[in-house]
Design a protein that fits this description.
heterodimer, A: alpha+beta, 8-stranded mixed beta sheet, 7-stranded mixed beta sheet, 17 strands, B: 305 residues, MetI-like fold, two-stranded antiparallel sheet, 14 helices
Chain lengths: 466, 305
């Protein structure tokens, strides 16, 4: 019996170990082979093309392949891998490697590789981080790509081009526009007797509307006697990733984290305080938004279960909808609704950008430019991931316009899109305001003004640092 | 003449001793080289970098002396995250040690199913911290988590915001960590308990000592050497907590669950302030060295070998 229990124990441990390994392993390819194997066995030029994976891909064989690092390891990573495969088929003379690295690790490897004199030939990260990376001396200007490719800067979103320009040089090439879009569950809205085509136009209208939508498990609304706030069945809206949600609401109210010339923190301005107070009220006074959660809250499961009417989420949710046709059938992508009393509209967007690291030689740069041009010009395929192609001419293509969420997001970003303010300490400023907003929303009795005052002091201290 | 002879004899004896001991030095040489390369050098390099405004791409770094230490002294966030870390460490170490000792006492003797219980209690320790994070989020999640399901649906209680409430978040992370890590101290305690002679318990039983009396007067004093090892290793491990808050809460709400190592990591790899990050690491190391020495001093006085 003792032997039996030991055997059972060993089996349990082995099962746990295997499950742990399974979580960390590269996703399996269609044929069931691990992704890492695909990379390890880089085929000869005449061998069958490898199955694309979001993590590692190698195309062709040579001593000095062009190397690319990026953080596209999610569902968009698979679409990206397919694009690389197509590029490799069109350019059999070029051999290159693509490595997907989770963003946190990417920002450790990238500066150390550049400092060690062995950078990849091109990298992909976000437009918001360009100023900081450029200030660290990690990027090369890319103005010559615009001359060489024939794509002038005015073919891209001008707000975005401003964001990636440092001291008169354009440091990167945009691949896409991505950010918040409204995913409206038309079934919930219609079930509540409301018209999905007539959503509230401002913050005041939204509260009335949201109280009609939100119901507890007994079918009561928040403005009715006996509403059970601990057992809500349907929420009007959901607390989502503050990195996008908070700037969007701040801008709608006329507030922000810093002023236009990035010299003064404005996190405690009356407009900013009103914006965050409004969010706290949605959670704690009107009970139409789920309570605050730290980290990166995600409502995918609740949305799938028809528990969220208006879901502020990323353009990349297009992949989620593609995998769930039943959910997509009752979903309408729309402009982000305004919470501001006057209905002022704004939405945050960002961009995956291509960059050439410091230290890359002419050959590496030339090879990278070929790939960059291909990826930018074939943005229509990239829109399969849900992201909006960066080139406006590509956005207008029929195959892009037929994807409802991509078409709506493109229209929205061009009309009301804003990007984060650039600064050499961008990430530190971002952490400071996220901390302040977290303190303001953590509990329903939190003092919003005090929390934002503290955050304002922290942001100002960063701005004042030489 | 005799002085010269004595000196020559001494030299010859020293050389012989050295020659005799040479194999010993050769045996430890590989470790010493690796130790110097990967531990001593980084420590001294970290100390050096903490005195500069270090930019990764500059060849000439800007000397700032003790300015980073002065800034750290005035850094409210540092003191807050240090407090969080100590609070997390204290709760985790106390529960871990107490629970591990009690469970080890129960599993010391073999009985039907004791082996499988040992394996089951140890098993969570082999999962990766990423998996732990995913499990913890599913368990503690306020809307769809298992705990709140029982609290609200079964017991009719209020929906508790486990990790969004600043006063609950550290205990929640501690309990999660205890579930994950208490297997190791349990095994160490089981080994330690086997070293206590069974005759002592039999004698105490004859003298009328009960279960609690035996535990208090025999187990506790004689397990102290093991206890010292467990407490010190647990202290060192949990003062360096990083991935649990980083994955589960991101350090929030606000800074309520941010740990020193998370702050250090963010300062270096997100803000690119390597000099200041090195200062944080130096100060954290000093604090841990001092507390460890105090622990040794306090616990050795009570240890019976």
């Amino acid at each position: 019996m003792r032997k039996m229990s030991i055997l059972l124990g060993v089996l349990v441990v082995m099962a746990l170990m295997l499950s742990a390994c399974g979580g960390a392993a590269a996703p399996a390819t269609e044929g069931g082979a691990p992704a890492a194997d695909t990379a390890a066995e880089a085929p000869a030029a005449d061998a069958p093309a490898p199955e694309p994976t979001p993590v590692v891909n190698a195309f062709g064989q040579c001593d000095d392949p062009m190397r690319m690092w990026h953080g596209l390891t999610g569902s968009d990573g698979l679409v990206f891998a397919e694009m690389l495969q197509q590029f490799a088929a069109d350019n059999p003379d070029l051999c290159f490697e693509s490595q997907g690295i989770p963003w946190d690790l990417f920002f450790q490897k990238y500066p150390t590789a550049v400092a060690a004199g062995d950078p990849p030939d091109m990298v992909i990260f976000h437009a918001a981080e360009v100023q900081q990376m450029a200030n660290e001396g990690l990027m090369q200007p890319m103005d010559d790509w615009y001359d060489m490719s024939g794509h002038s800067k005015d073919q891209f979103n001008d707000v975005l081009i401003n964001q990636i320009s440092v001291d008169g040089s354009t440091m990167a090439v945009p691949f896409d526009n991505h950010g918040w879009i409204l995913w409206a569950n038309t079934k919930i809205i219609e079930d509540a007797g409301l018209d999905p085509a007539a959503l509230p136009q401002n913050g005041t209208e939204f509260i009335d509307w949201a109280q009609k939508i939100t119901t507890d498990v007994n079918g009561k609304h928040p403005n009715e006697e006996g509403f059970d706030k601990d057992n809500v069945a349907v929420w009007a809206t959901w607390w989502t990733w503050p990195r996008y949600t908070v700037p969007t609401v701040l801008w709608q109210f006329g507030g922000g984290v810093v002023n236009e010339d990035v010299t003064q923190a404005t996190l405690n301005s009356p407009e900013s305080v009103a914006a965050i107070q409004y969010i706290q009220d949605l959670m704690c006074k009107y009970y139409v938004m789920n309570p605050y959660q730290p980290g990166t809250p995600y409502g995918g499961e609740a949305y799938e279960n028809n528990q969220i009417a208006l879901w502020w989420e990323g353009t990349w949710t297009g992949g989620y909808m593609r995998d769930r046709p039943d959910v997509a059938a009752v979903t309408e992508p729309m402009f982000i609704n305004s919470y501001a009393p006057d209905g002022n509209q704004a939405v945050k967007f960002d961009s995956h950008i291509f960059s050439i690291p410091t230290g890359v030689d002419e050959q590496g740069r030339a090879d990278a430019y070929k790939l960059i041009s291909y990826l930018v010009e074939n943005g229509a395929y990239w829109s399969n991931s849900g992201q909006v192609p960066a080139l406006k001419s590509v956005q207008a293509l029929p195959e892009v316009q037929e994807k409802a969420s991509v078409a709506k997001a493109a229209e929205q970003f061009n009309a009301i899109g804003r990007t984060d303010t650039s600064h050499k300490s961008f990430v530190e400023i971002q952490t400071a305001w996220e901390t302040a907003v977290g303190n303001a929303l953590a509990t329903c009795d939190a003092d919003v003004t005090q929390a934002l005052n503290d955050g304002n002091t922290a942001v100002q201290a960063i701005l004042d640092r030489p | 003449m005799s002085t010269v002879t004595a000196s020559a004899t001494l030299k010859s004896r020293r050389w012989k001793t050295l020659r005799d001991q040479l194999p010993n030095y050769l045996f430890i040489l590989p470790h010493f080289i690796l130790f110097t390369l990967f531990l001593l050098y980084p420590i001294f390099r970290g100390l050096q970098i903490s005195l500069f405004d270090w930019k990764i791409m500059l060849t000439e770094q800007k000397w700032v002396g003790l300015a980073n230490y002065e800034a750290l002294w005035n850094d409210k966030v540092f003191w807050q995250v240090l407090g969080n870390t100590f609070w997390f460490m204290i709760i985790t170490v106390i529960i871990n040690v107490a629970l591990a000792l009690v469970v080890a006492s129960g599993l010391k003797h073999r009985f039907y199913g004791s082996d499988i219980l040992r394996v089951l209690f140890y098993a969570p320790g082999i999962i990766s911290v990423s998996v732990l994070g995913i499990i913890a989020i599913r368990v503690w999640e306020p809307q769809i988590g298992i705990i709140n399901y029982y609290v609200t649906n079964m017991l009719g209680g209020p929906r508790v915001m486990w990790y969004s409430n600043p006063s609950l978040v550290i205990p929640v992370l501690s309990i999660t960590t205890v579930w994950w890590t208490f297997g190791f101290p349990m095994l160490v305690f089981i080994a330690g308990l086997h070293n206590i002679p069974e005759a002592l318990y039999e004698a105490a039983k004859i003298d009328g000592a009960g279960l609690f009396g035996s535990f208090r007067h025999i187990t506790i004093p004689l397990i102290m050497p093991t206890m010292l090892f467990v407490v010190v290793t647990q202290f060192i491990a949990h003062m360096q907590v990083f991935a649990q808050p980083y994955i589960i809460t991101g350090g929030g709400p606000g800074n309520a669950s941010r740990s020193v190592v998370q702050y250090l990591y963010e300062t270096a790899w997100k803000y690119f302030r390597y000099g200041y990050a090195s200062t944080i690491s130096v100060v954290l190391a000093l604090i841990m060295i001092v507390v460890t020495i105090i622990m040794f001093w306090l616990m050795r006085r009570r240890t019976e070998y």
